[in-house]
Design a protein that fits this description.
Elements: H1 5-10, H2 21-36, E1 38-40, H3 41-47, H4 52-86, H5 90-118, H6 120-138, H7 144-171, H8 178-186, H9 188-207, H10 209-230, H11 235-238, H12 245-254, E2 264-266, H13 268-271, H14 288-318, H15 323-351, H16 354-371, H17 380-408, H18 411-465
Parallel strand pairs: 1-2
Helix pairs in contact: 4-6, 4-7, 4-8, 4-9, 4-10, 4-14, 5-6, 5-7, 5-18, 6-7, 6-10, 7-8, 7-18, 8-15, 8-17, 9-10, 9-15, 14-15, 14-17, 14-18, 15-16, 15-17, 16-17, 16-18, 17-18
Length: 475
């Protein structure tokens, strides 16, 4: 500003080369006013303080994912009871379980596209309401066909809630805290599963499996109504829609940054790297390798994780353990996952994502293969603890891969990129519905653990191919 002032005053007389002095003064004044009345949302969010409102929004997103994991894993605790009560086999149950996972894949893909086009807030709310209502209705089911249909509908919401909620968390968090915040929300999937295990241990023996779904679904529906009144749209979505800038001004004010009524909003850091929106942007030059590698990583990771979510209690009961002890295996797996995700997130914040993720996936494979040597009849407690360790590594990778997606993709395709990776990963989850039933029937515990180990080895190789990992923190 001090360098331009002499030019303004010195150009008060007519200059044939530059035009009249008064005209030049007006042009420079207009340029200066424009700069004074603009606000870069990217700078505000990435480099500014983390306000109370932003923390509240991240907490709400985390609650949505807790309920996602809670309702999503209730079926795993109910399967052994239903097999006994209805006299069906593990193979009979596989299509019903797969239907839910197909719904999750479809929900993941379409929720990301809808979130990028119509808003993250609506995608989260609709997803939570859908899986809550469908889960509640499973309590009325009279056969496997009805359970499969309702699990498919619930899967649409469960699949949509995760990428939408993580995008909300990413876009309300400063860059310096984003990896930890995203992981803290994703870790809510195993946290929700752990709570579901504790919930099931009380409800199943006292009220039965129907009450498990009635109560679990009702909790999600109540959360959906609460989100209607509490959850705001993200600033980075609103900044691209000038018609909603009044809403953005109010939101920025609630974040302790009041702005003038005529403020012009920008997001220069993202706009410089955005070329086009939509699915094809995931394969632009420089992103294709990372996109394909992330798809493979999600596929293999979710194959391993959902083999545990869906079949671990059933596998343990097939080996002679009672339902309560078998359920504790999945609870231990989820508990280990919570610890693993938080530990890996802190490691990534300091060391970057490449080596922590590679180490966790390799150790997850090693743990699964080691457990094949454990005698379940003599060392059941060791096996349960071992599943906690395996869950530590497998869920650590799953949770922190979302942070890698948030780093790889810009705002305009961030939800689409995360959702597409998760949708491809759901194919691995769908495969787990059939593969889990098959390997347990044919190979028992050792066949099941061998499948987990091979999936984690493939995961290690896929993550090694990703080129654009989160960098280490500069010291």
């Amino acid at each position: 500003m001090t360098e331009t002032s002499p030019m303004v005053h010195g150009s008060a007389s007519h200059n044939p080369a530059t035009g009249s002095g008064p005209t030049l003064c007006r042009e420079l004044s207009s340029s200066r006013d424009s700069a004074d009345h603009s606000l870069d949302i990217g700078q505000v969010l990435d480099n500014g303080p983390w306000s109370v409102l932003q923390k509240v929004v991240v907490f709400i997103a985390a609650l949505s994912i807790i309920m996602d994991g809670f309702d999503g894993q209730l079926i795993g605790f109910a399967v052994p009871v239903l097999i006994k009560e209805w006299g069906v086999t593990r193979g009979d149950f596989a299509p019903a379980l797969a239907a839910g996972l197909v719904g999750m894949g479809i929900g993941s893909a379409f929720a990301g596209l809808l979130a990028d086009r119509f808003g993250r807030r609506g995608a989260v709310i609709v997803s939570v309401m859908v899986f809550g209502l469908a889960t509640f209705c499973i309590g009325f089911a009279a056969n496997l066909w009805q359970i499969g249909t309702l699990r498919f509908i619930a899967g649409l919401g469960i699949g949509g809630a995760l990428p939408s909620s993580t995008t909300v968390a990413a876009e309300f968090t400063p860059a310096r805290r984003r990896t930890l915040a995203i992981t803290a929300t994703i870790v809510c999937v195993p946290l929700g599963g752990m709570l579901a295990g504790l919930f099931a241990s009380v409800v199943l023996p006292n009220l039965g499996w129907r009450a498990l779904f009635f109560l679990g679904g009702a909790l999600a529906v109540l959360l959906g109504f609460a989100l209607l009144f509490i959850l705001p749209e993200t600033p980075r979505f609103l900044v691209r829609r000038p018609g909603r800038w009044a809403e953005l001004r109010r939101l920025v004010g609630r974040m302790s940054r009041p702005v003038a009524a005529d403020i012009v909003f920008t997001d220069l850091s993202e706009q410089r790297i955005e070329r086009r929106e939509g699915f094809l942007a995931l394969f632009e030059k420089g992103r294709a390798r990372d996109t394909i590698a992330l798809w493979c990583a999600f596929f293999l990771n979710l194959l391993a994780v959902y083999s545990a979510f869906t079949w671990l209690p059933t596998m343990l009961t097939s080996e002679g353990l009672d339902v309560a002890i078998a359920g504790s295996g999945l609870t231990a797996y989820n508990f280990g996952g919570v610890l693993g995700a938080l530990t890996c997130a802190m490691a990534i914040t300091r060391y970057g994502s490449r080596w922590p993720l590679l180490l966790c996936s390799f150790l997850g494979a090693a743990t699964a293969l080691y457990l094949t040597r454990v005698n379940i009849a003599l060392e059941a407690s060791i096996l349960i603890a071992g599943f906690g360790v395996q869950g530590f590594f497998a869920n650590a990778v799953q949770s922190t891969m979302y942070a890698v997606c948030a780093y790889v993709y810009p705002t305009s395709v961030r939800a689409t990129g995360t959702a597409s990776a998760l949708a491809f990963g759901r194919l691995g989850a769908i495969l787990s519905a059939f593969a889990g039933a098959t390997v347990i029937t044919v190979g028992g515990k050792d066949g099941y653990l061998l499948m987990l180990g091979v999936a984690m080895i493939g995961l290690t190789l896929s993550l090694a191919v990703v080129g654009r990992h989160i960098p280490a923190r500069k010291t």
